[in-house]
Design a protein that fits this description.
This protein is mostly helical. It has one domain. The protein is 41% helix and 0% strand. The longest helix has 24 residues. The radius of gyration is 15 Å and the shape is globular. The chain starts with 21 loop residues before the first helix and ends in a 26-residue tail after the last helix. The structure holds zinc ion (ZN). The site of zinc ion has 8 residues, from loops.
Length: 143
Amino acid sequence: MKKGKFTSELIAPCGMNCGICKGYIAFTHRLPKVRGKTTYCAGCLPRQKNCYIKRGCKKLTKHEVKFCYECAEMPCKHLEHLYSRYREHYGMSMVENLKMIKTKGMSGFLKSLQQRYLCPRCGDVVCVHDGKCYGCNFLQKKP
Ligand SMILES: [Zn+2]
């Protein structure tokens, strides 16, 4: 498989793909900073800080598990909170993502991301938060 827009380094333990996050897109596209609105983020794993999910989970902070799907408690209260918000507002389910990594492997998951989040117009990435491609300003309709 040729190297795509999405790599396993950008897949966070919770099943979030940082490549489609507004914070990461703002960082890589150098979007103008708007106070209180634009966050620059290099991605959950690359920046090596404890996120909301990691802070609440000893298994992740102690590196007993790498992804939440390795945990028998998935979805725990923490993940449930995050994932219901994403499912409701952004049409994406972290738990479905995690299950797919488990069943299809990382490369299968990355392939499905390419199909779902690549801009049909320019091949850049469509943001999960606002459905916009920052490469060409294409706007994807909400699913
Ligand atoms: Zn585009």
